[in-house]
Amino acid sequence: MGIKRKPKLAVWKFASCDGCQLTVLDCEDELLTLTDHIELAYFLEASSAVKRGPYDISIAEGSVTTQQDVERIHKIRKASKLLIGAGACASSGGIQALRNFTNVKDFVSAVYPSPEYIKTLDTSTPFSQHVPVDYELQGCPINKHQLLDAISSFLHGRKPNSTSYSVCIECKRRGNVCVMVAHGIPCMGPVTRAGCNALCPTYNRGCYSCYGPKETPNTASLSTWFRRLGMKEDDIVRIFRTYYSNAEPFRKESKLHEKDEK
Amino acid sequence: MKPSLQRGDRIVLEREHFQNLLDALNKKGYQIIGPTLGEGSIIYGKLSCVSDLPIGWTDEQEGGMYHLKKRGDNALFGYTVGPHSWKNFLFPSVQQLLQAKREGKGFQVNRKREEIPKFAFLGARSCDIYAITIQDKVFIKGKFVDPHYASRRGDTFIVAVNCGKAGGTCFCVSMGTGPRADLGFDIAMTEVLKSDRHYFLVELGTERGAEIFQEIPYKNASEEERATANTVVENTAKHMGRYMNTDHIKDLLYRNYEHPRWNDVAERCLACANCTMVCPTCFCTTVEDTGDVPGGHAERWRKLDSCFNLDHSYIHGGSTRYSIRSRYRQWMIHKIATWIDQFGTTGCVGCGRCITWCPVAIDITEEARAIRKSEQAAE
Description:
The complex is a heterodimer of chains A (262) and B (379).
Chain A: E1 8-13, H1 19-25, H2 31-37, E2 39-43, E3 55-61, H3 67-79, E4 80-86, H4 87-92, H5 104-111, E5 135-137, H6 144-156, H7 167-173, H8 179-183, H9 199-202, H10 219-228, H11 233-240, H12 248-256
Parallel strand pairs in A: 1-2, 1-3, 3-4, 4-5
Chain B: E1 10-14, H1 18-27, E2 30-38, E3 41-46, E4 57-62, E5 65-70, H2 87-90, E6 94-103, E7 106-110, E8 118-124, H3 126-139, H4 147-153, E9 157-162, H5 172-175, E10 187-193, E11 198-204, H6 207-212, E12 219-220, H7 223-238, H8 249-254, H9 261-268, H10 274-278, E13 285-291, E14 297-304, E15 314-315, E16 318-319, H11 324-343, H12 353-356, H13 364-378
Parallel strand pairs in B: 2-8, 8-9, 9-10
Antiparallel strand pairs in B: 1-11, 1-12, 2-3, 4-5, 6-7, 6-14, 10-11, 13-14, 15-16
């Protein structure tokens, strides 16, 4: 592509479990090849040696949960040519977005002995709610294949391979037998974006929706079928409120099954 | 010395000699693929001996439901079709088309030569043989031949089994594709289970089918044995779980692009694509290019795709079938109407897989019925 110097890569952390950052290190065999072609300029989990921006690529994991986060993502956006959000937190708010359904102050006082020291926002939100994001890697956590594909597509100027279709496609490509039809196991696969190669259904478990909603997910129809499989309303709320609870289709569907407590 | 067998002959193979058939196929160098138990269902896999078959098992199928249960006898083929079809072997869902290596300013293309076994499909049902002939039409009988399909399809030896049981979602009788195999097989068998005898009435469909029996103990079929086998298949035909009225079905659907039923089915349809993935005739694929980080190696892959995916209709500017309504309509009208214009037959063989394996039990026969009924009511 005629880039003379190595492109600078920065890896950032927000409210998250570090799982997506670990995926960079999890590249193992490809990690040295990767560093032959890009400079790891800022990646605190790997090295305390940091280089100043601007950066060619920023990969940011986590969600925005504090006022400092809001300011920081704006700074990172300004310092980055390409901003890639990594994982469920970055693209939807993550598990911590469960706070969006309730009063975060109740959590704070239940968890911390001195809640007065905690300053946090009422919601957990994706980066795209604050700044323009160029590309999002999905999954909880992301996997190294999509990460390497995104980086190599950036390096060589091609379109990254992303999926928007259901987990069922990958499941059937593997020749799996449907866990819902053959065993009556509730499975989120039909409304979940592919990308994990149907990991859980391959081992006879229902999909937990680690990759979030697929394009045009019909959550209402799936919920109707979950009920026929014997799921209670509470369980339907929970199955839609895991890694992508704040993603609009899942948020809306879970709300419909919530008992009105007022 | 036995008198030599010929195409069209009908003979009897006793159950105790069934292994000889597998041995004879193995000896001829075939890799035998057939029904076997796996993941709580009957799937297709490699077979080497009779005990690899789901002996004594049967399946119960309904919309969105599949269960295995014991039959109470030792039938070898006492079930209908499962989630797999022969498409899994003739048209693999993920295939590498080429690899490319950067060389100087250009690149070198390598096509990986795949070792493809000579397949013998054991226990192919009539609906599925029709499905193979439909895919043959798509991939090898037209102007453009798909080399990947062609090399796998090659000399496939087909041992058909005439169905002794109709499934809850079967409707081959409606589609004129079964339950008796009438084309595309080397040998076709009807399993006969009596209290004191278990045998197969075998029809030889090709010369090589006849040849296989040169080394297998058999006897010529009596009138009575033929009649008994006929009864088995006739009885199956009477017990189809589903029915579809195909009378002028193309015109019916062409008249009803804007029918309210499409809205109704769109409320239920998940657009998950399970129906197209299990359909033995659906053939849509997508192509993915991948490249490594240093940029010296690239690969091109072909993967099974579906018209239920938003990206399937993506053209410059966006997808043309954004709504689930338009996707279901596209699939169903293609399958049983425009397919006729395109390939001369419908693309549906009545195997019922799309009904059984739809997670929310959408039933193509029911959708067609609803549209026809509304027209009749309006008249």
